[in-house]
Amino acid sequence: MPFIRGYTKQDGTPVRAHWRAPAGTHKQTVLAIGIVAAVFVFGSSGTTTGSTPGGGERLPAPWSSSGVTYPIKWPGREKPAPRKAPVPTPTVSYPIRWPGWKQTAPRPVPTVSYPIKWDRSGGER
């Protein structure tokens, strides 16, 4: 959605800054709000799905009667000594020297002599 800054019309009416919805989105917005409202109303109707026949009262979840302590620690699973991370080794040393490239390339010869004289023929354009 584009943001329209405040401005003044030609007849002097001031217009405040506002957000403007793109053309054609009103119908889709109303439809989306309607679908969300329908899901909210019909999706949470307040009925429960009890596991007992006849829709009786739910019983609380059973608690463990054993003497288990959490967290469970398995033997041999103690934290091992931290290992050292491997140190990366460089695979290239710069500058790269290619075999047979001991001499440098010849310098290019300039094809233009300076200063350039623009008034060569004296003709008008």
Describe the structure.
The chain is 14% helix and 6% strand. The protein is built from one helix and four strands. The protein has one helix spanning 26-43, and strands at 3-4, 7-8, 14-15, 18-19. The strands form two sheets. Strands 1-4 form a two-stranded antiparallel sheet. A two-stranded antiparallel sheet has the order 2-3. β2 (7-8) and β3 (14-15) form a beta hairpin. The protein is flat, with a radius of gyration of 41 Å. It starts with a strand and ends in an 82-residue tail after the last helix.
For the CA atoms, what is the radius of gyration? Answer: 41 Å
- H and E string: EEEEH
**Assembly category:** single chain
Low-confidence stretches: none
Name the strands of the widest sheet in spatial order.
1-4
Helix content: 10-25%
Largest sheet: 2 strands, antiparallel
Termini Cα gap:
55 Å
Total beta strands: 4
Structural class: little secondary structure
- Average residue-wise pLDDT: 78
Strand content: 5-15%
**Shape, per Cα inertia axes:** flat
Quickly count the helices: 1
